[in-house]
Write a structure and sequence with these properties.
InterPro entries: NrtA/CpmA_ABC-bd_dom. This is ABC transporter substrate-binding protein. The protein is of the alpha/beta class. The protein contains 18 helices and 16 strands. The chain has a domain of 123 residues: 3-Layer(aba) Sandwich (D-Maltodextrin-Binding Protein, domain 2).
Length: 406
């Protein structure tokens, strides 16, 4: 099929849909001869189901979602591919004001240090257990989400068992703040702008951030029906080029005011522009007048932010295995890894000479400083990409990593 194929693409009202929004609003999609309709949805379950029944050919997706679908872990499972990442970071963990006060009493710090604030939370959890109080309830946006796995990773790394010491439930992103305000949950892990909305409404305090738990870590991808990808490759290639150019535009600081204005419109986030600018600068209001400077809080383009690293896919798979969401086998690991399609990315962007890494996987968490890499003359800089606990993930030593987390 020609590159003029019509594509219906689902998205959720989150700031990390920015590359999709800018691609549409700034003309990058039409420049490639494509017709793409963006359809706003309210939950990740709707995104999952509507791509499965053919309403969408592609969608803004949680990074683990296509992996879960390909492993047969979701209703209406469908073969999906993830040929493009939609940026790095962008999430935070927000707790109720009452819980934050209890954490401060247990020596929580003024910023988003995951170790200090996690230790304070551990002490709060222990006191509640000793008193026979019900477990704290945290919300995530979907079982197969970066939010769920980074929240669990943080909790476990701080000595809190996500399975028995707290309760984790699913709440759609737009309902998180209302659930926190109503006392239905004690905290949540969600993408922006909902953490900032909770702070602005005096409903919560940001305790830590995705970028603090695992710096420059994956969050959303472009999920595409494998059948559509196979039958409409010219159109898919053109879409990836449009999204890549959009990511470049989104990453330029000179465009941030305009990007925030685009995202603030009623069609997308319907929030004041001034509430969105901190997402791009990393200088977030944390609550009670405190401000946090979070390096590389949300990265739409730099540091290989759009490359679908297969090591990212395998890390998510490792967490699915760790928490009993899937059994482990070499075949399942291969299926998870091959959900991410850097081969499609490389072919689509070859005509525009986009900088490329020399490999499809990397050791995650090993870079302590920014480092130049890549097979392109234009070069590529990656890192730092550390986990807060100092661990590293070597995708070639998956079994050893799994054993170390038991």
């Amino acid at each position: 099929m020609a590159a003029t194929a019509d594509i219906t693409l689902g998205f959720l009202p989150l700031f990390d849909s920015a590359v999709l929004v800018a691609a549409s609003e700034k003309g990058f999609i039409t420049d490639e001869g494509l017709s793409v309709q963006l359809v706003r949805e309210t939950s990740w379950a709707n995104i999952r189901d509507r791509i499965a029944v053919g309403h969408f050919q592609a969608a803004h997706m949680l990074a683990p979602m296509p992996i879960a679908s390909n492993l047969g872990l979701t209703p209406l499972s469908l073969d999906l591919v993830a040929p493009f990442a939609l940026g790095l970071g962008g999430n935070a963990v927000t707790v109720s004001r009452d819980l934050w006060e209890r954490m401060v009493a247990e020596d929580a710090g003024p910023g988003t240090d995951p170790s200090a604030n996690g230790a304070a939370l551990r002490r709060v959890v222990a006191r509640r257990r000793d008193a026979g109080a019900p477990p704290l309830r945290f919300a995530v946006v979907h079982p197969f989400s970066g939010h769920n796995y980074e929240l669990r990773y943080w909790l476990a790394g701080c000595g809190i068992d996500p399975e028995s010491h707290v309760e984790i439930v699913v709440v759609p992103p737009p309902l998180m703040v209302d659930a926190l305000s109503a006392g239905a949950i004690d905290g949540f892990c969600v993408g922006e702008p909902w953490n900032s909305v909770a702070v602005a409404r005096h409903a919560g305090h940001i305790a830590t951030a995705k970028a603090s738990i695992w710096r420059l870590s994956p969050e959303k991808v472009l999920g595409v029906s494998a059948r559509f990808a196979a039958e409409n490759r010219p159109a898919l290639d053109a879409l990836l080029r449009a999204l890549y150019r959009s990511s470049m535009w989104c990453g330029e600081s000179a465009n941030h005011e305009e990007l925030a204005a685009l995202m603030s419109s009623p069609a997308y986030l319907d929030l004041p522009r001034k509430m969105l600018m901190p997402i791009l600068t990393g200088r977030l209001m944390l609550g009670d007048g405190a401000t946090g400077d979070i390096p590389e809080f949300f990265v739409p383009h730099a540091k290989g932010a759009t490359f679908p690293w297969q090591s990212h896919a395998l890390w998510f798979y490792s967490q699915m295995v760790r928490w009993g969401h899937t059994p482990h086998s070499a075949a399942l690991a291969e299926r998870a890894r091959d959900t991410y399609r850097p081969d499609i990315y490389r072919q689509a962007l070859k005509p525009i000479a986009a900088p490329m890494p020399g490999a499809n996987m990397k050791v995650e968490g090993a870079l302590t400083v920014a480092a130049p890499v890549g097979a392109s003359e234009r070069g590529l800089v990656l890192g730092p990409d550390g986990f807060f606990d100092g661990r590293i993930f070597d995708p070639d030593r998956l079994d050893a990593y799994l054993a170390s987390q038991r």
